[in-house]
Design brief:
Blueprint (H helix, E strand, L loop, with lengths): L8 E5 L3 H14 L9 E6 L1 H10 L7 E5 L15 H7 L1 E5 L2 E7 L4 E6 L2 E6 L5 E7 L2 E9 L1 E5 L7 H4 L11 E7 L10 E4 L4 E6 L6 E5 L2 E3 L2 E8 L5 E5 L5 H8 L3
Parallel strand pairs: 1-2, 2-3, 3-17
Antiparallel strand pairs: 4-17, 5-6, 5-16, 7-10, 7-14, 8-9, 8-13, 10-11, 11-12, 13-16, 14-15
Amino acid sequence: MADPQPRNIHFCASDTEIARQACARMIARFGEVAVESADVIVALGGDGFMLHTLHSTQKLDVPVYGMNCGTVGFLMNEFNADNLAERLEIAEETVINPLAMRAECIDGSEHTALAINEVSLLRAGPQAAKLKISVDGRVRMDLLICDGALVATPAGSTAYNYSAHGPILPIDADVLALTAMSAFRPRRWRGALLPKNAVVRFEVLEADKRPVMADADSRSVRNVTAVEIRSEQSIRHRLLFDPGHGLEERLIREQFV
């Protein structure tokens, strides 16, 4: 019996040979529609490509089903060309909100960007960064001397945040993780958990002497003097996962590795 034909799918793939070949086979087998007419987007690649796909399609309000043709694939499902229609039919949806970053620079310019995983501040010179941290307009830390600091969403809590020894957050938790990298003062300060609606502001002290860059999902801004971060709840990213393999299960499983 022929495979049921999934309707209104748009396929996209990363630049790797494996992903491109897989995409060509899927299109030949199932056909596809333009992204503007799609009911679902199937993204073939790794986590980086999934982030790119979510950013580029955020105005469409179309769910994205990832199939791993990369390395880690935390945001992806297992690659298998069989039973695609059935897998999409029973896939479970997770909705995540990105972070909005507004960065002020030494030259007076301002830059904005969105981040699905995290917004990070990193020292851009040989000396440690000096940061002042405010939450909702109230100074919470007058001086943090560190290699950097970041604010991560639950979806991004297993990425850079986890590598920096930050906490893994349940996907439906209404909190953000504020995590320091290599904190010198306060010694070994690990960060804080903040309400999802909190507005976090970092001010860079001695910005000329101790340059700092800001990064929002690999969108970098150099020579920042202040960075404000908040959850952008007006933007919804819809991810589809196979039953039993959603983000919630993966976040729990990651803590018992």
